[in-house]
């Protein structure tokens, strides 16, 4: 079964459909969540993860989807932090991630 999971990102790279995109994003979230939890404690994970994924390029999502099926490497951690600190991601975090959490 684990070998089949490893093939998902490669199969998705060949597809350009909404379903393939959603599967890749879901796998990428498995890599992003633990990194955000460790590096940015206290930030609401689901909205923060969505902001990171929404501001990643297609190739970055594929890289993170691969990491979500195996082990997250330091290269993947660096990529997640780089995406999380982009101006558009920070804007998303402020609008969709932190502000609603603070207002709740």
The chain-level mean pLDDT equals 83
Q: Report the strand count.
A: 0
List low-pLDDT spans.
none
| Backbone structural class | mainly alpha
Largest sheet data: none
Ends: how far apart? Answer: 41 Å
Helical fraction equals over 70%
Shape: globular
Give the total of domains: 1
For this structure, the quaternary state is single chain
Number of helices: 6
Taken in chain order, the helices and strands follow as: HHHHHH
Rg, rounded, reads 14 Å
Topology (elements, then pairings):
Blueprint: H1 2-14, H2 18-39, H3 45-54, H4 58-69, H5 74-84, H6 87-103
Protein described:
The chain has six helices and no strands. It is an all-alpha fold and 104 residues long. The protein has one domain (2-103). Helix 2 crosses helix 3, helix 2 (18-39) crosses helix 5 and helix 3 packs antiparallel against helix 6 (87-103). The longest helix has 22 residues, at 18-39. It is globular and about 30 Å long. It starts with a helix and ends with a helix. The model has no long low-confidence stretch (mean pLDDT 83).
Write a brief caption for the model.
With 104 residues, this protein is mostly helical.
What labels describe this entry?
82% helix; 104 residues
């Amino acid at each position: 079964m684990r070998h089949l999971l490893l093939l998902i990102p490669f199969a998705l790279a060949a597809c350009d459909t909404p379903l393939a995109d959603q599967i890749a994003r879901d796998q990428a979230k498995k890599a992003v969540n633990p990194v955000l939890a460790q590096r940015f404690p206290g930030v609401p994970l689901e909205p923060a993860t969505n902001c990171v994924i929404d501001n990643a390029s297609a190739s970055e999502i594929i890289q993170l989807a691969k990491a979500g099926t195996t082990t997250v490497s330091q290269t993947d951690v660096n990529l997640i932090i780089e995406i999380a600190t982009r101006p558009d991601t920070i804007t998303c975090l402020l609008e969709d991630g932190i502000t609603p959490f603070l207002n709740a």
